[in-house]
Amino acid sequence: MSKVNSAVRVKEKSKLFIKCADANWESFTERSETHDISETGISFYLKNPVWLDTHLVIKIASSNLFGHLHTVTAKVVRVLVDPSGRQFVAARFDE
Hints:
The protein is mostly beta strands.
């Protein structure tokens, strides 16, 4: 059985600018804020609905891990809806 390595997630409040397609396949951009981040992934809240496996382009304004104005691509791996209807999104960075 192989052991899965998971990167340590760090709580952070970096400003994000996210581009992708929503659950209706309409392109959108949305501003958000990092909930947590690691070398392999990121989590944040979105107002627009997205599907699992949606591809994202994320511009991170400033991060202790990635520095200033860093752009990454990522794939949505988890979506949880909170009581207010916001979506908590976890995404894995593309290699």
